[in-house]
Amino acid sequence: MQRSGSTLQYNIGRKIIEGKIHQSDIVVFGALEPDSFDSFRDLVLSSKEKLILAKAHWLPEEMVQLLTSDHASFFYISRELKDVYYSGKRKEGWDLDDFSESIDLNLTSFSLLRETGADTLVQRYEDLMADMPSSTLEIARFLNIELSDQQVNEIARSQDVNLVVASQGQMGTWPSLRVKLRNSAKSLPPGIIHFFKRSDLICTLVKRYLGNKDYDGKSLIHVNHISESKGASGAWKGNISEKEIQFIDELASRSNAKLYNT
Asked: Which sign does the torsion angle of CA 143, 145, 148, 152 carry?
């Protein structure tokens, strides 16, 4: 999944599954990151009778092959790339190199899903936000799970942006240390910057030494998850430079061709 919108799609799917399948038959793995690939692989291989739910922004080829051979279903969400970039820039301290790397990894994973014929539902963030109930129903049908109109509406309402903002506010106002670390790293020599500023490394360090005080491991909502724009599209306008816009538009033309086969 692309960053920016993936947690929303993940939580709708999670709510559908948790409402229809016995809790003892579900394993909510949560965020799937490079430092947890091995443990996730072991879980998949050892839990054949369980339904495992996880969210990742990219997957290595061997993981895609393992999951498709195990009859996994995949959800993919795309969004206007300028909004994706602005979100990453604000929350993660991204520069254009970080953004390009993230999109390349993301689309490589998507191409692997297409090549392997994996069962994949593709949605657009803008469509999901415009009509949450219809998008919820689309996810349920993809999972072959029947929902009443009332259940669809209850799940959609549970993901209302104001409720999510309230839940992240309950975590306190812990500062985004990861962004501060990444930005500080940019003053280091180039070789060290390349090693140090990778977000998966910073995430690992923060989790290992400081814990996840600003993060809910089930919903994957973190303390600064939704900004003052409350998930609205077009927040990038007036907040990124012409150089950034040109770079992203060029990248988007290639990305959309790969994503939609145009």
From this structure: negative
Six token digits for residue 45: 């291989």
Give me the percent of the chain exceeding a pLDDT of 70: 73
Residue 175: band (very low, low, confident or very high) from pLDDT cuts 50, 70, 90:
very low
Q: Which residue has the tokens 């929303």?
A: 8
Residue type, 18: E
DSSP for 191-220, written as a single string? HHHHHH--HHHHHHHHHHHH--TTB-TTT-
Local structure of 65: helix, strand or coil? helix
CA angle 244, 247, 253 (to 5 degrees): 135
Query: CA dist 178 to 99, 187, 192, 199, 203, Å?
Result: 16, 15, 16, 8, 7
Distance, in Å, from the CA atom of 125 to the CA atom of 254, rounded to the nearest integer, reads 19
Beta bridge partners of 30: 54
Tens of pLDDT, residues 194-225: 555 555 555 555 555 444 456 677 787 766 66
